[in-house]
Specification:
2 copies of one chain form a homodimer. By secondary structure, chain A is mainly alpha-helical. Chain A is about 70% helix and about 0% strand. Chain A has 11 helices and no strands. In chain A, helix 5 runs antiparallel to helix 8. At the A-B interface, helix 6, helix 7, helix 8, helix 9 and helix 11 of A face helix 6, helix 7, helix 8, helix 9 and helix 11 of B. The structure holds a DNA duplex (30 and 30 nucleotides).
Chain lengths: ~210, ~210
DNA sequence: ACTTTAAGTTAGGAGCTCTCACTTTGACAA
DNA sequence: TTGTCAAAGTGAGAGCTCCTAACTTAAAGT
């Protein structure tokens, strides 16, 4: 029983009348479609087709389209944070290497999941207002602030730490947008991202 | 005759059966609505209501919704470029002040017209593909590259100039996104944008 | 086994994009 | 000045979307 349920849960499409875990199935369908067609271009109808249910089914699990997108975006934020945390593994605390690792992972996420990244940060009105999403973003930024503080030899997040962290975030954030778009990234010519990030960390943490 | 026509041209709404300059009227309506409701949330139907014409009228002037948005975005790119160029007025060539002026103006545009800014750079699939829009973006970036070259004492756009210019662009671009969003900007704490930009120019143009 | 209820369904309203066939009217030539 | 034509409007409607309402299925607990 429990086993059969688990197998069902992981499936995108349903088998019988009931899906097993339609909520998760729709979130996964949403993720796939947002990557495929972009944050605009996504439709609930498409997600229903992909999950193999009728177009009315989602409304048993989500209030509306926006809530469905927010649920997917939230999982994206968590992946984003977890990957950033994982990238710190084995790098000495207080060294610039930790800053560049975070930046690198931030940008890698934007490159690997451009649809989700743009959805989360590109200014889609619906998602901007969700408090859980905002809180998740703040949590991730807090990680950055902690690392900046350590690099600057501060034990607390001072105003200067916050200022530097915000500048670093802005930089990496902007690079993510530029690099996730082929029409923009080629304007940068031939460059090595790791080199740029190292250069950045040196310049921004100096003094 | 010519005068009456000009008066009509500047009007958003039509007076008689014919509008006078519906194309321009729709572009202006589109701009207003994109600011009001965000790039998503915009509908051709709304623009028609605002311009006072039937919902079939736009298709005499634009192939589809996308082309209408692109036309509006194009004017936004031109405003963006013109304002950046104007901001250089009276600042000595080859000084970092010209870089900070460009950056400041870039961000100001994002703050003054967040809807248009996000539409142009937030990764809306339809617009990304338009070659005229891409070319306009490249033209604006070329201005930045020229200033960076002058600051670094180069007479040409070398690979290093391009790299630094791209980094500066990335930074200002990211800050624009963060500052245009109240939920992000407050994470930066209390800070003075001019001070940050000066700091940035010093750090990024050093060496 | 029976009941309850969560989770599906079909049907349909309202709004959107866009097309088609039609109407209006300004511009230009005779 | 008048007649014609083409540009620029119109209403009607097809096909899509999101979402609701009322109905049906079947899973879970007593």
């Amino acid at each position: 029983m429990k086993n059969a349920e688990k197998i069902k849960s992981s499936a995108l499409r349903k088998s019988g009348y009931h899906h097993g875990d339609l909520r998760a199935g729709l979130i996964e369908a949403t993720r796939q479609l947002v990557e495929e067609k972009g944050p605009d271009g996504f439709s609930v109808t498409d997600a229903c087709r992909l999950a193999g249910v009728s177009t009315a089914a989602p409304y048993k699990h989500f209030k509306d389209k926006s809530e469905m997108i927010v649920a997917m975006a939230m999982q994206g934020m968590e992946r984003h944070r977890d990957m950033m945390l994982a990238s710190l593994e084995g790098i000495a605390v207080g060294t610039p290497g930790r800053i560049t690792a975070l930046g690198r992972q931030y940008i890698d996420f934007a490159l690997n999941e451009p649809g989700v990244f743009r959805l989360n940060f590109g200014g889609f009105t619906d998602c901007l207002d969700d408090p859980a999403l905002v809180a998740a973003g703040e949590g991730t930024f807090a990680i950055v602030l902690g690392e900046v503080a350590a690099c600057l030899g501060e034990s607390q997040v001072t105003e200067e730490v916050r200022r530097r962290g915000f500048m670093l975030w802005g930089f990496v954030h902007g690079l993510s947008f530029l690099m996730a778009d082929p029409k923009h990234v080629r304007l940068g010519g031939e460059f090595d991202l790791d080199h740029i990030l190292d250069d950045l960390a040196v310049r921004m943490l100096a003094n």
